[in-house]
Amino acid sequence: MSSDLMPTEAIKRIVRDAYRNVPPTTEAVARRIYSPEALAGVPMSAICRSLGVADHLSWATIEPGDTVLDVGCGGGIDSIIAAHRAGPSGRVIALDFLPEMLERTAQAARLAGVETVEPLLGEMEGIPLPDASVDLVISNGVINLSARKGRAMAECARVLRPGGRLCVSDLTVDQDHLPPEIVTQPAAWAGCVAGALSEEGFLHKLDRAGFRDIEVVSHEPLSIDDCSLYPLFPEHVIDLMRRLIPPERHPQVAIAIVVRASRP
Ligand SMILES: C[S@@+](CC[C@H](N)C(=O)[O-])C[C@H]1O[C@@H](n2cnc3c(N)ncnc32)[C@H](O)[C@@H]1O
């Protein structure tokens, strides 16, 4: 369902409801995405709430002392990995619009013995941070959930200092390949598929938001079996996908890209 057919507020409500009560059952997602080395030092509570789409942090340059903003931190897995890399003189601002997610991130950071993760309640379309206050923006499977993706990207650019970097992962799809019966399922939006852009559309919006040196450094196909690892996709949506998407496309219903860019 494209955002011009569904009101912005309705999309936000669907996403909030889906993520507020998401169960801690996604260890398999974390094991699929991250290397064992990346997960060392991450508490199981965060591993079991991994809802991202790729290991963008393996492509991110994180310097000791960096101020990192994790947009849509969820259960905190990337915030904790980033905090380890930014060291005790760094900061990781963990932004999410659900207080429940921030509590989960704070608790996981305590369990990891990390004191530099700072939960921040707010929306990616209006990030409650000053201009030019961050060295690096990271985000994993979040921007596609917004009905105002260009606005969210512009906010990421605004909070970055000149020369600051962006390193995000997100799903891209060819919407023409998704049958309308799937596109109109609210769960498919919450599952990061129905609201996703094409790769070209994603890169165009980053450019419009003021980013430069934009490069896609990784492409990973997402299969229907991969989708079924996420509790966001109820069984009836997975069944619909299996029935309505031609079998030759089952191994690749979406592509997780990792994009790096910088703010001039
Ligand atoms: C797919 S999950 C990804 C979580 C985390 N990045 C990870 O890799 O596990 C999306 C997260 O983004 C948050 N979120 C969705 N829309 C948001 C918005 N408009 N502003 C801030 N956070 C949002 C959700 O609450 C959820 O925690």
Task: Summarize this entry quickly.
This protein is of the alpha/beta class. It is built from twelve helices and seven strands.
Q: Could you walk me through the main structural features you see in this protein, from its secondary elements to its overall organization?
A:
With 264 residues, the chain is of the alpha/beta class. 36% of the residues lie in helices and 21% in strands. The chain is built from 12 helices and 7 strands. The protein has a 7-stranded mixed beta sheet, sandwiched between helices. It is globular and about 50 Å long. It starts with 7 loop residues before the first helix and ends with a strand. The structure holds S-adenosylmethionine (SAM). The site of S-adenosylmethionine has 25 residues, from helix 1, helix 5 and strand 2.
| Approximate helicity band | 25-40%
Beta-strand proportion: 15-25%
Class in CATH?
Alpha Beta
The hetero compounds bound to this protein are: S-adenosylmethionine
Using brief descriptors, characterize the structure shown.
21% strand, alpha/beta, binds S-adenosylmethionine, globular, 7-stranded mixed β-sheet, 7 strands, 264 residues
Write the SSE topology:
Blueprint (H helix, E strand, L loop, with lengths): L7 H13 L6 H7 L2 H4 L4 H4 L19 E5 L5 H10 L4 E6 L2 H14 L4 E5 L12 E7 L8 H11 E13 L7 H4 L2 H5 L8 H10 L3 E11 L1 H4 L7 H10 L9 E9 L2
Bound molecules: S-adenosylmethionine.
S-adenosylmethionine binds next to helix 1, helix 5 and strand 2.
